[in-house]
Amino acid sequence: MLFTRQSRSMKSSQLLWMTALVILLGTTQACSQNGAEPKATGTLASAPAELRDGEQKFNANCSTCHGGGGVGTSQGPPLVHKVYEPNHHGDAAFQRAAATGVKAHHWQFGDMPKINAVKPEDVDEIVKYVRWLQKQAGIF
Ligand code: HEC
User: Fold this and answer.
1) Does residue 15 carry a pLDDT above 70?
2) Is 20 or 38 the better-scoring residue by pLDDT?
3) If you take atom 41 of ligand 1, which residue's CA is the nearest one?
């Protein structure tokens, strides 16, 4: 009898621990999910000095649609994406996109207008920065 009662009380305390664990796990998961987004912008701050010009030009001319750090917005796709790695969209595709614009074909964001404010030299610098972001993200 005594043994049975004891084991029963052990069970209920085990149940309590299990519940606590489930709640704890649930909370940790929610936290790590929230933490996923700032990670992408975390790379922004650490761009090497020689890429700062490209970063600035990207932020001034491209990030309204392609997002800070190239993560995309509701206006345009992420450039930090395997679709835009060098073998799929080489540097020439970036020059063409800026010089003539892009007819929507990969996504549902609509067309990209040509970006008059950037010269080919600017796009060169922007591409270097975007390739760096892609590399950081392990895309190539
Ligand atoms: C007004 C919004 C907007 C701005 C500003 C913008 N883009 Fe885009 N861009 C888009 C959209 C939308 C697409 C996707 C079109 C599709 O394939 O559906 C795109 C696609 C691209 C592509 C892929 C081209 C291809 O051949 O498929 C490149 C490269 C690109 N943009 C680079 C840039 C660069 C570099 C800048 C800044 C100089 C820039 N974009 C500024 C909206 C924008």
Assistant:
1) no
2) 20
3) 62
